[in-house]
Specification:
alpha+beta, five-stranded antiparallel β-sheet, five-stranded mixed β-sheet, 4 helices, elongated
Length: 196
């Protein structure tokens, strides 16, 4: 159900780091991703809805009742497009940590995209069991008591605590390596203590 992080192996053998090493020997840029192939089934359902809407529009046998036909065509096309966007936008997530920010891009076109400056981050932790159930479903989620999340599959993820008390969670493979890089960046930025 998920792919492993992409990128070259770092000096410690962990996957997920890519790019040249910075002055301290750590990765200059860390990249990781998570994928949920099950969502391709939902994309297939979206294509089926679009095909049904087009078929109804082209081969209409309802010559006497145009209003139900228009409603059926528009409904099928809208449902198909929404399903396609919802699944293709969240079939995978790419996470990038550089010296200045944490960036999260969703889907094949990278939208929605979230950039969190590391100056706004207080700490980061690994959550070994992020699930769609705890966030109310797949995709880009917000819950007042929990914060914001990008959930594309069950499993490990990063939880970033922000200076304003909110949190941001994202499912990504090799979350432990990402948290190490974020904590290292936080120590360098302001000398803030980062928990081990």
């Amino acid at each position: 159900m998920r792919d492993h992080s992409h990128g070259a192996r770092g000096h410690d053998g962990s996957q997920g780091s890519r790019g040249t090493a910075d002055a301290a020997g750590g990765p200059a840029v860390w990249t990781g991703r998570a994928t949920n192939r099950v969502q391709w089934l939902l994309a297939g359902a979206g294509f089926a809805c679009l095909a049904l809407g087009i078929d109804l529009a082209v081969d209409n046998a309802w010559a006497s009742a145009i209003t139900p036909l228009v409603m059926a065509v528009v409904g099928c096309l809208a449902a198909g497009l929404l399903m396609l966007y919802g699944t293709l936008a969240f079939v995978h997530v790419a996470v990038r940590v550089d010296k200045e920010c944490l960036e999260v891009r969703c889907g094949h076109i990278g939208v929605p995209r979230t950039r969190i400056p590391l100056t706004h981050v207080v700490d980061a932790d690994v959550d070994p069991r992020v699930t769609p159930r705890q966030w109310g479903g797949w995709g880009y989620r917000w819950r007042p008591e929990q914060g914001t999340a990008v959930v594309v599959r069950r499993g490990e993820g990063i939880v970033v605590r922000l200076g304003d008390g909110r949190s941001f969670t994202v499912t990504v493979d090799d979350a432990e390596a990402a948290v190490r890089v974020i904590r290292d960046r936080l120590r360098r930025l302001g000398g803030r203590p980062a928990s081990a």
